[in-house]
Protein: Ribosomal protein S6 kinase
Amino acid sequence: MAGVFDIDLDPPEDNVSDEELSDGAKINEYIDQCSGFEFMEDCEKFEISEDSVNQGTEKIRPECFELLRVLGKGGYGKVFQVRKVAGAASGKIFAMKVLKKAMIVRNAKDTAHTKAERSILEEVKHPFIVDLIYAFQTGEKLYLILEYLSGGELFMQLEREGIFLEDTACFYLAEISLALGHLHQKGIIYRDLKPENIMLNYNGHVKLTDFGLCKESIHDGTVTHTFCGTIEYMAPEILTRSGHNRAVDWWSLGALMYDMLTGAPPFTAENRKKTIDKILKCKLNLPPYLTQEARDLLKKLLKRNASVRIGASPRDVLDIQRHSFFRHINWDDLLAFKIDPPFKPFLQSADDVSQFDSKFTSQTPVDSPDDTKLSESDNQVFLGFTYIAPSVLENIKEKFTFEPKSRSPRKVLGSPRTPVSPLKAEVEDGWSRGPLFPEVTTSSSLLPPTGALKQASNVEQMDMSSNMEASAPLPIKKPLGSNTGSFMKQPHPVGGRRPKHLKMKL
Structure:
């Protein structure tokens, strides 16, 4: 990661292959043949330079984008909805993440995380991972232009619905697991999986965002010790600083799955210390309404011993895919977008921001000037930040066609669920009841047959003691605009509770 922006200044190697020597001899022969040529006086002569050779490369700067809405704010900058007004793809909607250099360079870890995010977004291309379109910088700021994800955060959808039925959770978890598996294949661990970092595109498909806490070059047998993430979704081995690898992402997937199915992460408390204590010591309480397949997967994902956690083997995501919870998923069809999402956003226009928090979208978008002047050495840190996606270069002359938008990640400054390293959070006590919705009947290819739905008479538990209650709100209503049919009935307890600090005011 430290070499993300390094420029290779090493001299060429002295060792040359026989093939290269042969090619060089041919070139010398051509030069000898041309050495006697005399150019005619009427020939055009010009100097070879970057401007004359690379004329097709688009020059991107802040003035190429019109600010439309504020999508989010954080300690290091803002996220805007923007429209491109010049060059290729003029008129298209994007999300623009603006970071202040002066804020980033104050902390070596923040600088490293920013460089890692930029590097990973360029390297990783996957259907369920947000696309980086452009990256550029000015003297004071860094700019990331990302695809605009108009479906908003999965967190917003989860807050509206209270909990998901198993077929809905199965769909989202399947797409997320494919994204994580792709990162792991490239030696990248994500380390910040939570509903706020999962976006939905205009069709309702998942897009993983925010790669600031990722760690590169983590392969089999490699561990890292950084304390980072969001407490409620952090694996025990991160909390104990005993060394962690890609297995932490599968723990987080289990915590996310539990959150989807019950209305809150598996271990929560009124403060940070007690939450950590529960993650390390308390039993996992599984509500009786969960199917046998869901209970089994949760227990295997939330194993405190990382070495025996599902997904920890060299097979990684393949072990997840083979679990019976996903037995109705056709993974090839899922990857090819041939399975309809359970929720499709209702969007009225290309710049629709109805799926985002009005706390931000109601603000006037202003990219405030930053008068902070960085030293030359500080600016050297960001060498090589500029980037244009190959898809833009390949289609530089093609006519723009409308594709509904998507959004870059939003961080709320001071939020207990905003990741820092280490996390500092003050949490409110108490839980709030989820919304009550009438049950509706449905059929779905992602749900097991009715006969397969089993209830447990007692709450299943893990290997340590706890007084934690297990309950959840009633099932969700069928989303408006959904084309997946009605949901299968599934029993849920009435008294669902979600910690206030994990809720968002809509």
About this structure: The CA atoms of residues 102 and 372 lie 7 Å apart. The two ends are 38 Å apart (CA to CA). The chain has two domains: 62-150+350-394, 153-347+419-502. Residues 1-23, 34-40, 44-56, 393-496 have pLDDT under 50 and may be disordered.
